[in-house]
Specification:
With 657 residues, this protein is an alpha+beta fold. The chain contains 29 helices and 19 strands. Helices cover 43% and strands 15% of the residues. The radius of gyration is 25 Å and the shape is globular.
Length: 657
């Protein structure tokens, strides 16, 4: 796991790029504290920079940027290729290795594969997470590529006539002639979802390479100041469509296929030359990963959970029970509210651009604490999107089947009726009446969810309904002045896809959007800030295909998601240890904003601070703040998004009050 960066000017360099490259690479030193390197080709003004977190082949043979033996390619690579040993055997079998290997790094494997098989075939054969910058000296072309799901980030853009790129925006901000002009057109969707989505970034003219994307840039492209379109070398939609055509009708064969695919993925991802462990929350996904790790290890696997001083958000007891049953060497990392609160001022620095999923706080804490024990941790990320774990996969079809029969005016009236009772009143009702309900029906933040349901009752389609459920803020345009509103409906953000039913479409939308733009960004920045590599066995092409070969009722059945994963997990862990309400990775943001964070928030919401982002509707923002303080509504998530963009603006312009 590493950080990469570079400059491509397309013209002969009149001076060495090394000092600038070193500055750019040093800006992301946290991604790779073990080693650094730069390489340049003055004839075209090209330079590559690298920071290394040594995971496989700790020797100098793994140093980057690395040049191929044939001299044609130079590679700066961030990530891990989990099947690189298998790729080496194939290369040896086909005669692609005549002079032996210099070391056992996956970087060297990639270079040999590029030489023998070419770029796209190598990417298709590689299983892993990666962001790649490859210079082809023969074709005078720079190739940028990103893994299938976007686990590893890669930003790029034209700055001062040069193409600059890097794992984080911090690196690009060290480039010559960097201006960093805000891209105000991304704010509406940021305020809606709490993250900067798709290929955009917070800065104008700076983009993110799309997952499964490939960009080939020639010398003439840079000289002309016009980048070619990004090509797609892998598509989750087409892969899912192909897998559906070959789905299994036999449940036993389907479950066996899932277990084998996931076990193989876990086995590959356990390869490391440094201490390795796993996050364990005690939920389905992390428990299954830990179980499959332990089943393939002759020693006790190290597992980690985080315990909070607020019992409403503490899952550590459940995790400890699962760990005891599996026989792992378990560590409960104790975190306090004070630790989370102290972390908040650092979030703009850690995330580089506005990011407002408040579970970033516990994710940062568990990453920092876990790094004190291991260098690599496996996680359960991706299980919800692939196997139907989110409540909306159950609720939306049920709700829409009823809503679609009701006239729109009637639905609007029902929504108004639901809001007659304050959301806090619904919370009290659930606290009292929930004790008599089965555990699966006990809903935390019940009032907030009912209000969210009331807001989507007026939706004209199931796509609009999904968009409302997937939104942190259903009315982000209200937080912006009229000139900065797009006028687009949430339905316009999601394409219709032929060949998928309602629930399958939602799972694809979550895979393409929420998982990529929120979950993976959150985990990457939180873990790499502590120089911890986090691997996600569910995000393996074999596991993905196996998941989409399942009939839908093996993913969502009887009002529960992840049915198939549950059946596999019950082979390792008793059902009663797993069957409990989904808690999530949350923090008590409502109470914090009214209590210990109030002074911090009010400072950011001051007139002078709001004026620095003139596209914000300051009056509306302050009304939300007052309503939240008075307990009339739960506006914590909407306010958190505003506060994070204001904190980011102040961080990038430290002279502000």
């Amino acid at each position: 796991m590493c950080g990469i960066t570079g400059i491509f000017q397309g013209v002969p360099s009149g001076h060495s790029l090394k000092p600038v490259l070193e500055q750019m690479a040093d800006a992301i030193a946290h991604r790779g504290p073990d080693d650094s390197g730069v390489w340049e080709d003055p004839s075209v003004g090209l330079g590559l920079g690298h920071r290394r977190l040594s995971i496989v082949d700790l020797s100098p043979a793994g140093h980057q940027p690395m040049r191929s033996d044939c001299g044609r390619f130079v590679l700066a690579f961030n990530g891990e290729i989990y099947n690189h040993k298998a790729l080496r055997k194939e290369l040896e079998f086909c005669g692609g290795v005549s002079a032996g290997w210099n070391g056992h790094s996956d970087t060297e494997t990639l270079l040999r594969a590029f030489t023998v098989w070419g770029i796209e075939k190598t990417l298709e054969m590689a299983t892993g997470m990666f962001a790649i910058a490859l210079w082809d000296r023969e074709e005078q072309t720079l190739i940028l590529a990103r893994d299938r799901f976007g686990e590893k980030p890669l930003y790029y853009g034209l700055v001062g006539g040069a193409l600059v790129f890097g794992s984080e925006l911090k690196a690009l901000q060290r480039a010559p002639e960097w201006k960093g002009t805000l891209a105000p057109d991304v704010l509406e969707n940021y305020l809606r979802f709490g993250c900067i989505g798709a290929q955009a970034s917070i800065f104008k003219d700076v983009l993110k390479l799309s997952p499964g994307g490939l960009l080939k840039v020639s010398v003439s492209d840079v000289r002309n100041g016009c980048l070619p379109p990004v090509r797609t070398w892998w598509s989750p939609v087409e892969t899912a469509r192909d897998a559906l055509e070959g789905h299994y009708n036999n449940p036993e064969i389907a479950l066996d296929n899932i277990e084998k695919a996931l076990a193989a993925s876990v086995g590959r991802q356990m390869a490391a030359d440094v201490p390795l462990g796993a996050f364990l929350s005690g939920g389905i996904d992390s428990s299954l990963v830990a179980a499959l790790m332990q089943s393939q290890s002759s020693q006790k696997v190290r597992t980690f959970s985080v315990g909070f001083d607020d019992p409403r958000y503490d899952e550590s007891g459940h995790a400890a029970m699962v760990a005891t049953h599996l026989g792992t060497e378990h560590t409960t990392l104790r975190a306090t509210s004070r630790m989370a609160l102290d972390l908040i001022p650092r979030l703009p620095e850690l995330y580089d651009e506005p990011f407002a999923d408040s579970s970033q706080l516990p994710t940062c804490l568990i990453s920092a604490l876990t790094r004190q024990h291991v260098t690599v941790a496996l996680s359960g990320d991706g299980g919800d999107e692939l196997f139907g774990g989110y409540n909306r996969y159950v609720w939306l079809p049920r709700v829409w089947s009823k809503l679609s029969r009701m006239p729109l005016p009637m639905r609007q009236a029902l929504g108004r009726m639901l809001k007659v009772i304050p959301s806090s009143g619904y919370d009290r009702m659930m606290a009292v009446g929930g004790k008599a309900l089965p555990s699966r029906y006990r809903i935390r933040t019940f009032g907030e969810k009912l209000y969210k349901l009331a807001d989507v009752l007026a939706c004209s389609s199931d796509r609009a309904l999904y968009g409302g459920l997937a939104s942190m803020n259903r009315d982000p345009e209200q937080l912006l002045k009229p000139d900065w509103r797009s006028g687009k409906s949430v339905e316009d953000l999601y394409p219709a896809l032929a060949g998928f039913n309602q629930v399958e479409w939602m799972m694809l939308m979550d895979t393409l959007n929420f998982m990529v733009d929120d979950v993976l960004v959150k985990v990457d920045r939180a873990s790499m800030a502590s120089s911890l590599e986090v691997r996600a066995p569910f995000l393996d092409p074999g596991v993905y295909a196996a998941a989409w070969q399942l009939p839908l009722d093996m993913r969502v059945r009887n009002g529960e998601g992840k049915w198939a994963l549950r059946q596999v997990l019950y082979k390792y862990v008793p059902r009663e240890m797993i069957e409990r309400p989904k808690m999530g990775f949350a923090v008590p943001l409502d109470a914090w904003l009214r209590g210990p964070l109030r002074e911090w928030a009010e400072d950011l919401l001051s007139s002078s601070s709001l004026a620095d982002l003139p596209m914000l509707n300051a009056g509306r923002v302050r009304r939300l703040w007052r309503a939240h303080l008075e307990g009339r509504r739960h506006y914590a998530q909407q306010l958190w998004a505003v506060l994070q963009v204001l904190a980011w603006q102040r961080y990038r312009r430290p002279g502000l009050p």
